[in-house]
Specification:
Strand order of the largest sheet: 3-2-1-4-5-6-7
Number of strands: 7
Oligomer: single chain
Largest sheet: 7 strands, parallel
Shape: globular
Structural class: alpha/beta
Mean pLDDT: 95
Low-confidence stretches: none
Number of helices: 9
Distance between the termini: 35 Å
Order of helices and strands: EHEHEHEHEHHEHHHE
Strand content: 15-25%
């Protein structure tokens, strides 16, 4: 892949870890497609920053849990940037902190649709383009899981944690399935990162509450996760597949 044009799809690229990943990848020579669901202004701001610095970037609206939107995303990449060589499955949601006994079916369906069906659909489209079995030139996929997959998030969002546990299993299985076809599949497990997702859970200052229990005694920055993602995408990680990097301050 070293002589191949590098084309990266980042889902959930309008803010937080996704935006940081897109910006860092552009610095490293990737053409970028940012997928976003609602935050068009923020996604376009990230894309414009990349363009001002001489990179190529498109921003595509879509919901990764909807097959038609995923198909449209990858068709746009094919047309505007070329064949995808890297995918970061970053889009994810959590909902207001709540015990399992209170969770509605609709909530569970929303969380699992975005957090696990979405990565499956995006990986499916990426593999169809990357796999040597289909005439592709190989590639790399990084799934953004969570330390919650290990910790369970009791009393907060066990549904989110369970969806990320599924992402971990998906990572291992897909990695083995496509290893002989030129595709590496790995994951990062961020935890306690300074992003807006905590506000989505109803506690914007959650990290201030929990940082005393983090060995490094602070929250992480999106850029710290992005660096791990870009390493896993790079040739420096050429012998790593089905692997996990925890970026959670020691928790």
């Amino acid at each position: 892949m070293s002589n191949t044009k590098k084309v990266l799809v980042v889902t959930g690229g309008s803010r937080g870890i996704g935006a940081a990943t897109a910006l860092l990848a552009a610095e490293q020579g990737y053409d970028i497609a940012i997928a976003f669901r609602r935050r068009e202004a923020e996604a376009e701001a990230v894309a414009e920053t990349i363009r001002r610095q001489g990179g190529r970037c498109i921003a595509v609206r879509g919901d990764v849990s909807q097959e038609r939107d995923v198909l449209r995303l990858f068709a746009a990449v094919d047309e505007d940037l070329g064949t995808v060589t890297a995918l970061v499955n970053n889009a994810g949601i959590l909902e207001t902190q709540q015990r399992v006994e209170k969770m509605s079916l609709e909530r569970l369906q929303r969380v699992f649709a975005t957090n696990i069906i979405g990565p499956f659909l995006c990986a499916r489209e990426a593999v169809q383009r990357m796999s040597t079995r289909h005439g592709g030139g190989g590639g790399a996929i990084v799934n953004v899981s969570s330390a919650a997959a290990r910790l369970g998030s009791p009393g907060e969002y066990v549904d989110y944690a369970a969806s990320k546990g599924a992402v971990d299993t998906f990572t291992v299985g897909l990695a083995q399935e496509v290893a002989a076809e030129g595709i590496r599949v790995n994951a990062v497990r961020p935890g306690f990162i300074q992003t807006e997702i905590h506000a989505d859970g109803g506690e914007p200052n959650r990290i201030d509450r929990v940082k005393g229990g983090i060995p490094l005694r602070r929250g992480g920055q999106p850029e710290e996760v992005a660096r791990a993602i870009l390493w896993l995408l790079s040739e420096e990680a050429s012998y790593s597949t089905g692997a996990f990097i925890d970026v959670a301050g020691g928790r």
